[in-house]
Amino acid sequence: MRQVRVRFAPSPTGYLHVGNARTALFNWLFARQKRGAFILRVEDTDVERSRQEYYLRLMDDLRWLGLDWDEGPDIGGDYGPYRQSERLEIYRLYTQQLLEAGRAYYCFCSPEELEQARREALAAGRMPIYSGKCRHLSPEEAAARVARGEKAAVRLKTPDKGEVIFNDLVHGELHFQLEVIGDPILVRSNGLPAYNYAVVIDDHLMEITHVIRGEDHISNTPRQILTYQALGWEPPQFAHLSMVMGEDNTRLSKRHGATSVDQFAQEGILPEALFNYLAFLGWSPPEGQEVLSREELVELFNLSRVSRSAAIFDYQKLYWLNRQHLKRLTPGEKVTRVLPFLQKAGFLPEKLTREHHLWLEKAVEALIEGVNKLNELPEKFNLFFEFDLSKMEESARRILQAESARTVLEALAEELANRSAVSFEEFSDIAREVRQKTGVKGKELFHPIRVALTGQTSGLELDKFIPLIEEGARLTWRQPLLSARERIVRTLQWLTQ
Ligand code: GLU
Fold first, then answer.
1. What's the confidence (pLDDT) of residue 425?
2. CATH number for the domain including 174?
């Protein structure tokens, strides 16, 4: 059997949309499972819209997701070049061949003329297909006009009647009437190949066995098959993936939220979580498994389980998967992933020591519960780095203003005065002593202590919070991290203002 060769063929005209990333991912999963080759080919013949910046970003985003390619514009390969803009000579060769064989012809119709014909057809309720006007020019006359410098496109000469039939691996057998196809343009009058033409030449010369791409290309496929036939080539197999939609059943767009791989990365979705989620857009494993690694997905993936119906992008499901993948990381790995987000928040010192790392591991562990995206985490660190009683909520303020609160806090300050960092156990012993000394107990004892330490009435449990501030206060940060004692003292000062 032939080696499986698939490709992802993006046009570098924007950031990598999750719909396209899903196409790349299905190709990659298929290639890896079949021990085939995954090829990256960049379709950059639209000179006006293609940009180098997008081209570079595209590769970064694919790498970030964990997709690697066996051949591509950056690493080369036996079937290159892998950028269409570098393959123009190849297309020209085949155009010449098609013209000489009478399978293609020059078309001199101006854009205005074509546009008018299109409008008239639409107004008359007809399909706007090319009339075939230039089809009947003699090849000699056409060649002479081209030689005189007249601008011409090249069109494929297609049969007038009949149908194109192909077996789509997702949709089954599909039929297209030739009457509604017309003679597609192969080369534009500016000399650049049309997508439908370049894609055929490239897929054939690169020996692509399966074309897996978005359903928006389904109506292009018969045109491409006709081109294969004109060139005497065998078409590859096709699999068209349903579109990715928002929950309101319209194409996923900015209105729904983040849509590009880069945006999800910036929000703090883990690449393995986005990978896992994208695999589920239009596919599901046989036994309903949900949290899967890349390796597990390669094992399980199967084109025959790809669904025909639209894939709905469910942000909540993605966040849930992100939380599951976060749980799978060790505390050290979590810090590594979170660090770029914390760096922006501005409290980390320039040089992080091992002690900082260990502290961050515990702090992240304590705060990460319920976090959907890593960009939610820096704000949670305010609990340690911000101690501003003037911003306290009314309910917290009232707790501190109770008569007994001051008694408790004064006694606590006294006990803490002679100690350096205390553990939570030591702190509990101290609280017990304060209770004995002051006679204040229960809520009246613990609520003011919590508010005086955190500035809040609820939140992180004190058995987690106290060791973190006690250990954190001994390290250097860009912003001060106050110890328990310092917090109590500040609160007392604030009370006596
Ligand atoms: N450049 C096309 C796109 O980005 C590729 C389509 C195809 O895979 O054939 O939609």
1. 87
2. 3.40.50.620
Q: Please tell me the total count of domains within the chain.
A: 4
Whether residue 87 has its Cβ less than 6 Å from ligand 1: no
Q: Which of 312, 302, 207, 313 is nearest to 258 (CA)?
A: 313
* Reported confidence tier of residue 453, pLDDT bands at 50, 70, 90: very high
Q: 324 with 334, same domain?
A: no
What sign results for the dihedral spanned by CA atoms 131, 136, 141, 143? positive
- What are 258's two structure tokens? 């983040």
202 CB near ligand 1 (under 6 Å): no
Are 247 and 236 part of one and the same domain?
no
As a whole number, mean pLDDT of residues 424-433 equals 88
In this prediction, residues 138-160 reach a mean pLDDT of: 95
The reply to whether 334 and 408 lie within a common domain is: no
Domain ranges, residue 430: 386-495
Rounded Cα distance, 7 and 33, in Å: 14
Q: What is the CATH number of the domain that holds 346?
A: 1.10.8.70
Nearest CA, atom 3, ligand 1: 10
Average pLDDT, the chain: 94
Choose the residue to mutate in 41, 43, 215, 224 for probing ligand 1, maximizing ligand atoms within 8 Å of C-beta.
Answer: 43
One domain, residues 272 and 391: no
Q: What is the pLDDT of residue 423?
A: 85
* CB-based contacts of 221, cutoff 8 Å, min separation 6: 166, 168, 174, 176, 238, 240
In Å, what is the CA distance from 404 to each residue of 164, 390, 445?
87, 21, 8
**DSSP-derived secondary structure for 322-363:** HHHHHHTS-HHHHHHHHHHHHHHHT-S-SS--HHHHHHHHHH
Q: What is the mean pLDDT of residues 196-204?
A: 98
Catalytic residue list contains 254: yes
Is residue 202 located within the same domain as residue 250? Answer: no
| Residue of 34, 161, 254, 391 marked active site | 254
403 and 473 belong to one structural domain = yes
CB-ligand 1 contact for 11 (6 Å cutoff): yes
- Residue 189, pLDDT > 90, answer yes
- Supply the pLDDT for residue 1: 74
Last residue of a domain, one of 328, 347, 364: 328
Going by CA atoms, what residue is nearest to atom 10 of ligand 1? 10
User: What is the band of 36 on the pLDDT scale with cuts at 50, 70, 90?
Assistant: very high
Cα dihedral value 246, 250, 254, 255, nearest 10: -90
Q: Which of 223, 241, 259 is the last residue of a domain?
A: 241
Looking at the structure, do residues 301 and 334 belong to the same domain, yes or no?
A: no
107 inside domain: yes
Q: Is the pLDDT of residue 420 over 80?
A: no
Tell me if 43 CB under 6 Å of ligand 1. yes
Determine the residue of 83, 204, 217, 224 to mutate for testing ligand 1's pocket, defined as the one with the most ligand atoms within 8 A of the Cβ atom. Answer: 217
16 within ligand 1 shell (Cβ under 6 A): no
